[in-house]
Amino acid sequence: MMNNINPKxxxxxxxxxxxxxxxxxxxxxxxxxxxxxxYLSNCPCYLTDYTxxxxxxxxxxxxxxxxxxxxxxxxxxxxxxxxxxAESRDYYEFTxxxxxxxxxxxxxxxxxxxxxxxxxxxxxxxxxKGKKLDLDRIVSKRRADLNLQRxxxxxxxxxxxxxxxxxxxxxxxxxxxxxxxxxxQKVFFENLFENSPxxxxxxxxxxxxxxxxxxxxxxxxxxxxxxxxxxINDIIVPENFKEEAISYTKQTSQGKFLDVTTIxxxxxxxxxxxxxxGKPIFLDxxxxxxxxxxxxxNEKVWNQIQEKIIYETTDxxxxxxxxxxxxxxxxKLLRPVIGTGEMFLELISPMKKYLxxxxxxxGEYRNLAFSESVSSLVLKEKKMLNLDESQIxxxxxxxxxxxxxxxxxxxxxxxxDNDVVLGxxxxxxxxSPINPDADTxxxxxxxxxxxxxxxxxxxxxxxxxxxxxxxxxxxxxIVITNRYGDIExxxxxxxxxxxxxEEEVIGKNPRILKSxxxxxxxxxxxxxxxxxxQEWNCEFLNVKKNKELYWERASFSAIKDDFxxxxxxxxxxxxxxxxxxxxxxxxxxxxQAEESDRMKSAFxxxxxxxxxxxxxxxxxxxxLCNNKMSVDEILEFVQLINKSGNQLHEIIEDILKFxxxxxxxxxxxxxxxxxxxxFEEVKSQAIEKRKLExxxxxxxxxxPDTNFNKVLIKTDFQRLLNVVMNxxxxxxxxxxxxxxxxxxxxxxxxxxxxxKDTGVGIEQDKKEIIFDRFRQVDDSITRTFGGTGMGLxxxxxxxxxxxxxxxxxxxxxxxxxFSVFLDCILSTEKPKHKMSDKTATEIxxxxxxxxxxxxxxxxxxxxxxxxxxxxxxxxxxNGGEAIRICKERGSEIDLILMDMRMPEIDGMEATLEIKxxxxxxxxxxxxxxxxxxxxxxxxxxxxxxxxxxxxKKELLLDKLKDFIKIA
Length: 967
Ligand code: ADP
Fold this sequence. Notes:
Strand order of the largest sheet: 13-12-11-16-15-14
Structural class: alpha+beta
Oligomer: single chain
Helix content: 40-55%
Bound molecules: adenosine-5'-diphosphate
């Protein structure tokens, strides 16, 4: 057929076909109408689309007859059509086969040309003009016009019909598609809902069940009918989870999403762990329902929950600051699993007297008597108890428990660690009853095991903390080393004692404290014991950082791990330096006491000897006296008795002084006096003493400090005299040959008085003890020297009292020097002339007269007169020599007889000079008889008197007596 379709029309046609309506089919209906129209109009009609097909097959009346002709002329028609009416909406008339007329009327569908109705095959009578044609239809023009009008109208109706049919078809088709989609969706969702592995429920706004799926029925053991319109919380929520469930439904009804793990129960009361998700369903922003799913938490998920709880419990055990926090924290963890029970922890108190109750609801612990708690039953049985109200009542009765309130359910697990029962952990429920399933109980048991280890660890930590604190505050030094001996810990006391800081000793070996005084053997023994794990105690003399030595008593022990292996060593040390000192002092005191006891005996023996000797002579000599004896003999005896009496007096004086000192009754006087006066007294007593002791063979020397004059001192005159005389007496006593010298030296305010002898001397090691009471170098019975051993001790005590000190220097068999130092100088004067340092003068009881006389015969005369009168004479041959002797031995000289006329330096000049440095020196001038001028001159220049030559014995002695008293 025709292939050259007008492309624009073809596009239209395709469009209609694309819509899924088979437009050709629409023509079937049209064909029927066309047939009727053809029949009524008595003209053949046909319908064509642009594929060139006549659609449907031309069967209209009359059409058959013309089909062949039309077909014959169709090419022409089509050409006409293509060129003229393809897009025309108007009809188009044309003639074919010479007289035959046709009209093509477009059929419109949705405003577009869809096909044509060709109304054809007629010949208009008037146009034949009498020609006779064998033709089918010959109609009048009028009739032809009328038919055309009708045909136009008909096609217009047809167009409408087809359009309507098309629209209908289209609509129907779309409806069909839509409902199919809906059906599909419904099936899909139904399937999804019904076959979901999760239990699903849809609730209305009041939480009533609208729909449940198969899984829901299966999980909760309800049929659909049983749950429809019921409140969800009434059917699947266990009593003790009601509160929680209400809060959940409230949340979702407020439009929130929910995702929790909890417990629900089946129709038959079986509790199951479920993961619940809830979602609100909105329509046009309005919540119309709630969609909730329940997933049965299978073993794996339950294990995960368990793991999480156990993990977080461990965490809590490590981090909870107190037991209360622990109980509350664990309670929170377990709440989704066990619902509304209240967790408690009842720990046995440290003294095991009562239970300490830590509960989830209260902020602090409470003490409970064992009889006040169901826990005591668990502690007794040492196993878990899971009791309901009636069981509790029953057991409480039997065990005489006085419970303040009976819980609906009570579950308690014993907390046991290493066989030590620590307490009970559990849950009690007073409100809605709880009834955990086996899995939950197992979990609770696991948690209680954890708590047991945790509590035990906490106890140990507390113990450790206490231990650590006591170590830190210990009054003993503590050192911990590793097993190689490196210091790992020292306490503050260690640092305080040794002077080392912690940083200085950590990592070091304790041998830094070794002083070297502890024998090696001790350390070896110590280590032998320690490596065997045995304790070791010892006293060490150690050294501090500042090199100071100190004593410590150390106790060492080994620290072992659980397997008995030594990991550390610990030393606890006590500084016993004071104790050692105390012991030493005690020992010394003991020795001293013994010594003093021994000394007392020796003293008593000495004293009795010392007293007996003079007493014997007193009694002996006085017994001897009788009237037959001559006066001389009696006088001699009396002298001996007197001497012994003096000795006795001295000893008794010493004893009294000593007793006074010992009893603290000695008082000190403060006298101000010139040193010269003091030594005058010393000199005279010394001479006296020498005589008494029959030691006249010994020289007595006096050596003053020539750098000073008029030394004024302030101290107790008598006591100082006692001391010096004691020393002097000892000097005499312990010296057989040579001399006893005394003197002084001045340094600043201090005076050093000394007594030096050339006697037996003192051994080095006795130098200290001789100052102790009753001590003598030789305290044997066979001793050579007498004495009581009190003198030095008295002297030392006196010096202590006067604020001074006494020292001795001595060399055996060479002599001793006792020195007394005292800060007592008030003032001094410098001598006008420097005196010679060698001023040791022999002290004698004879007054010494210096005779300055150049004439030897004159001197001899004077010497003879003086010596006979017990004067000691020193000769100076001239003025110069007189000055020199005065300078050297001025203190020895009592008076100078000065000849005025002498060679070189005469008497006048010498007098002037001597008076300069020795103003108090008594000088008597010898003047020539005839020379009165000499007399006056002598007195003028300072001579104390004069005597004229030739010297007359009596006059001289008289004059001397005026100035010197002879003993
Ligand atoms: P006493 O002389 O009565 O025994 P002292 O206390 O005065 O007691 O002296 C104690 C001891 O000191 C003497 O016994 C003597 O051994 C020793 N001693 C004291 N002075 C001297 C001295 N100048 N030379 C040697 N020994 C002395």
